[in-house]
């Protein structure tokens, strides 16, 4: 995955919001809007070095959802636009900001095989009460490194 394109297509946008537009020009404009609104997602992913990783199994659909929701709030056209009140737009933008903050703080990790910041880093810490236990802990640490 790279941080260069939209995560969603016009058809995915239309299916999500339940809108339909047959005007090619409006569909092209929506596609451009999806590409532009994806840049906020790209910036958050880039801030944690997640632009070039293999995505977790769920991550692509989540990124599509973020892209579609922000585009739905930002897009303004007579054709194929979700009908949102100003309050709903504000709510969606606040939700988007929280989601992107979770990415930037590594609370949500989109890369496969990685864990978020809230995942325990150790399950058990060894305690050395004798010199022999200290030596075993050091030996195990050296062995696990390499």
Note down, in words, how this protein is organized.
By secondary structure, the chain is mainly α. It has 5 helices and no strands. The chain has helices spanning 10-17, 24-47, 59-74, 86-104, 131-145. α2 (24-47) packs parallel to α4 (86-104). The protein is elongated. The two termini are 30 Å apart. The model is unreliable at 116-121 (pLDDT under 50).
Primary descriptors:
146 residues; mainly alpha; elongated
Offer a quick outline of the entry:
The protein is mainly α and 146 residues long. 56% of the residues lie in helices and 0% in strands.
Reported for the largest beta sheet, the result is: none
The chain-level mean pLDDT equals 87
Beta-strand segment tally: 0
Helix share, percent: 55-70%
Strand content: under 5%
Helical segment count: 5
Total domain units: 1
Helical/strand content category: mainly alpha
Head-to-tail CA distance between termini: 30 Å
Radius of gyration: 22 Å
Overall spatial form = elongated
- What oligomeric state is this? single chain
Topology:
Layout: H1 10-17, H2 24-47, H3 59-74, H4 86-104, H5 131-145
Helix pairs in contact: 1-3, 2-3, 2-4, 3-4
């Amino acid at each position: 995955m790279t941080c260069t394109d939209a995560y969603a297509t016009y058809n995915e946008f239309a299916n999500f919001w339940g809108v339909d537009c047959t005007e090619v020009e409006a569909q092209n404009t929506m596609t451009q809007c999806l590409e532009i609104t994806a840049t906020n997602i790209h910036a958050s992913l880039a801030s944690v070095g997640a632009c070039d990783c293999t995505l977790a199994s769920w991550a692509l659909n989540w990124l599509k959802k973020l892209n579609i929701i922000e585009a739905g709030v930002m897009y303004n056209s007579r054709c194929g636009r979700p009908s949102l009140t100003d309050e709903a737009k504000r709510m969606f933008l606040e939700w988007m900001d929280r989601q992107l903050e979770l990415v930037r703080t590594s609370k949500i990790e989109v890369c496969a095989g990685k864990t978020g910041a809230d995942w325990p880093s150790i399950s058990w810490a060894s305690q050395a009460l004798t010199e022999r236990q200290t030596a075993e802990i050091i030996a195990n640490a050296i062995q696990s490194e390499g």
